[in-house]
């Protein structure tokens, strides 16, 4: 039988090597964990499922998914550029709210307009339309199926009426959705809100979320 006998100095070297390897393994683990996208603790809570994954395109034909909106508060509205009455008023309200939040409260949010009429609302059409209100409003469009999917996810009702070829209206609900940085729906606002009331309600939701995250 052959037995290996380690001298005290060799034992110290071996122990030091083991400690060094263990330290590097822990360092690699910490580094890999830091490289993973962090998910705020609030995003892991279970809340009513309103919304979901989507893939649409902005006015520059860039792909936009739900992941690109994470990290910021978002004000979302579903409409279409040919809407004759309520639609333009709601888009103007959105533009006014964005300006109020910045000037009065020093708060920025992402304004988002999603068309429910993708057959007529091309990216160029959306860009021209929204620039008349505020160029900061992001316009999104996509295939008919993609638009139907996100509308269903946010429980938005819409259907074509008075349909004569390309001359038709789209009947729909006119709600705005406030999404928190986790893309969870914090509030839903009806058309009865004035811009000033809407801005104040948004600030209250942001402050409430900030307080809950520090507790």
UniProtKB/TrEMBL annotation:
<feature type="binding site">
    <location>
        <position position="83"/>
    </location>
    <ligand>
        <name>Cu cation</name>
    </ligand>
</feature>
<dbReference type="InterPro" id="IPR036249">
    <property type="entry name" value="Thioredoxin-like_sf"/>
</dbReference>
<dbReference type="InterPro" id="IPR003782">
    <property type="entry name" value="SCO1/SenC"/>
</dbReference>
<protein>
    <recommendedName>
        <fullName>Thioredoxin domain-containing protein</fullName>
    </recommendedName>
</protein>
<dbReference type="GO" id="GO:0005739">
    <property type="term" value="C:mitochondrion"/>
</dbReference>
<comment type="similarity">
    <text>Belongs to the SCO1/2 family.</text>
</comment>
<keyword id="KW-0186">Copper</keyword>
<keyword id="KW-0479">Metal-binding</keyword>
<feature type="signal peptide">
    <location>
        <begin position="1"/>
        <end position="23"/>
    </location>
</feature>
<dbReference type="GO" id="GO:0033617">
    <property type="term" value="P:mitochondrial respiratory chain complex IV assembly"/>
</dbReference>
<keyword id="KW-0732">Signal</keyword>
<dbReference type="GO" id="GO:0046872">
    <property type="term" value="F:metal ion binding"/>
</dbReference>
<dbReference type="Pfam" id="PF02630">
    <property type="entry name" value="SCO1-SenC"/>
</dbReference>
């Amino acid at each position: 039988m052959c037995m290996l006998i380690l001298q005290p100095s060799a034992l110290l070297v071996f122990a030091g090597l083991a400690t060094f390897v263990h330290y590097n393994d822990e360092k690699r683990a910490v580094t890999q964990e830091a490289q993973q996208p962090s998910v705020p603790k609030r995003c892991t809570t279970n809340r009513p499922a309103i919304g979901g994954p989507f893939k649409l395109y902005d006015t520059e034909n860039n792909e936009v998914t739900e992941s690109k909106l994470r990290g910021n508060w978002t004000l979302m509205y579903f409409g279409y550029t040919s809407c004759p009455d309520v639609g333009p008023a709601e888009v103007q309200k959105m533009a006014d709210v964005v300006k109020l939040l910045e000037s009065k409260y020093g708060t920025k949010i992402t304004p988002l307009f999603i068309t429910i009429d993708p057959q007529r609302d091309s990216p160029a059409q959306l860009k021209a339309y929204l620039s008349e209100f505020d160029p900061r409003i992001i316009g999104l469009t996509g295939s008919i199926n993609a638009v139907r999917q996100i509308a269903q996810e946010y429980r938005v009702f819409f259907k074509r009426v008075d349909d004569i070829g390309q001359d038709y209206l789209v009947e729909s609900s006119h709600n705005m959705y406030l999404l928190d940085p986790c893309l969870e729906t914090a509030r839903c606002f009806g058309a009865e809100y004035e811009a000033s009331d809407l801005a104040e309600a948004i600030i209250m939701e942001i402050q409430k979320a900030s307080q809950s995250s520090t507790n």
